[in-house]
Amino acid sequence: MTLVSPDTLISGARAGQLVSFPTDTVPALAARSDRAELIFTAKQRSPDKPLILMGASLEDLMPYVLGSAVELEAWRALARRYWPGALTLVLPASAAVPRAMNPLDPSTIGLRVPDCAIAREILAQTGPLATTSANLSGQPPLQRLAEIDRAFDGVLTLDPEAIGPLPPASGLPSTVAKWIGDRWEILRQGSVNLQLPT
């Protein structure tokens, strides 16, 4: 059993260990972005399924994208409207993004700020983390932290008793929008009903 306190989880994440904590959608399996390969191994995940970089704020994530001044403002505008929230933005990646985040297409990166206070508190102290749902590939996302603790040996999982009651998570995946050329394209419709500028 590796149910841990927030402080232990934060220290472990900083040290490069796999961790798991709640978000506003489903619990996350997370690691430092330069240790993203740990997530692919633990989940038995195909390299053609990139990870999401989750951060505590928009400004924490901006160093990981590369665009013109006009593009950056368009991206910020949509992020300000929906973050924190269940919207993942897929944007051109800067050199700060490790290739292991998206092994087959390192030119893009998915970014998100969760609408979950404990997740943002953790991310504010660890810095942005590589994340995905906590489950083996092809299986439904695990919803309870205790289930994750049993399924993933050695992953530091946040102890629910250490954080008290949380608002209910949606259990739905995030909506995913990708910037292509000069406009947004919805890749996955999730819990956010995205209203795109025309």
From TrEMBL:
Principal location listed in the UniProt entry: cytoplasm
Example of a GO biological process term: tRNA processing
One GO molecular-function entry: double-stranded RNA binding
Alphabetical keyword list: ATP-binding, Cytoplasm, Nucleotide-binding, Nucleotidyltransferase, Transferase, tRNA processing
Subcellular location: Cytoplasm
UniProt xrefs under PROSITE patterns: YRDC
A GO CC annotation given for this chain: cytoplasm
Swiss-Prot/TrEMBL catalytic activity: L-threonine + hydrogencarbonate + ATP = L-threonylcarbamoyladenylate + diphosphate + H2O
Superkingdom of origin: Bacteria
InterPro entries the UniProt entry points to: DHBP_synth_RibB-like_a/b_dom (IPR017945), Sua5-like_dom (IPR006070), TC-AMP_synthase_SUA5 (IPR050156)
Enzyme Commission code: 2.7.7.87
Entry keyword annotation includes tRNA processing: yes
Domain YrdC-like: 3-192
Family indicated by similarity: Belongs to the SUA5 family.
PANTHER family: SUA5, THREONYLCARBAMOYL-AMP SYNTHASE
Identification of the protein by name: L-threonylcarbamoyladenylate synthase
Organism of origin: Oxynema aestuarii AP17
